[in-house]
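Hypothesis: this fold can be encoded by more than one sequence.
Test: take the structure tokens below, design a sequence, compare later.
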């Protein structure tokens, strides 16, 4: 297994980043690729997980080992594949996911794309009591109340990129459209638009 990769961020898309390591470009799928926009052209360290199936070989990357651990735990839950696990981690608050599992908070878990009541229940059955060690290391809750201000106008380039990234994560256009007015109230970089959108979508 590839534990981590050190290299320069060469390219960013809504699904993945490309990291150049001594002239070799590694395509790495990440929960929020635009978090690395600030690192474009810079050397980063990204913790990786190699996913192998009969017809797929993919490399997934995370900013911390704790995020990667939660990703691998989620993959062991029936009904959750890599795309679903990435969508759950894209919210940027794995601690809240762990807490929801421990509290058997199905209402919170079903807010993630592709997670219905059956899958949420399976997450609780499979993972409750097995993730507490992660809570000490995970980031604090990033969700804060947002003021709703309707502001019509053309989408900025960063907002367009954020919308595409949300679609990649599995959110429906109908869901995304509901939060666009709140997103338009500020001029933000792409990664912050994504973070804010996820905060709103998971309320």
């Amino acid at each position: 297994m590839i534990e981590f990769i050190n290299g320069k961020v060469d390219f960013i898309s809504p699904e993945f980043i490309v990291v150049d390591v001594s002239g070799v470009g590694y395509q790495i799928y990440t929960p929020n690729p635009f978090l690395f926009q600030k690192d474009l052209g810079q050397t980063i360290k990204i913790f990786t997980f190699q996913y192998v199936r009969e017809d797929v070989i993919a490399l997934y990357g995370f900013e911390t080992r704790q995020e990667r651990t939660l990703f691998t735990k989620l993959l062991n839950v029936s009904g959750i594949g890599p795309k679903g696990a990435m969508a759950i981690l894209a919210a940027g608050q794995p601690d809240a996911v762990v807490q929801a599992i421990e509290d058997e908070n199905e209402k919170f878990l079903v807010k993630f794309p592709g997670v219905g009541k059956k899958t949420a229940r399976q997450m609780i059955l499979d993972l409750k009591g097995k993730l507490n060690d992660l809570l000490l290391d995970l980031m604090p809750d990033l969700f804060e109340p947002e003021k709703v201000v309707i502001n019509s106008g053309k989408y900025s380039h960063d907002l367009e990129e954020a919308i595409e990234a949300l679609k990649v994560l599995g959110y429906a256009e109908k869901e995304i459209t509901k939060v666009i007015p709140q997103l338009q109230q500020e001029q933000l970089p792409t990664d912050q638009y994504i973070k804010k959108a996820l905060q709103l979508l998971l309320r």
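Residues 9 and 40 are 5 Å apart (CA to CA). The longest strand covers residues 43-53.
Hypothesis status: open.
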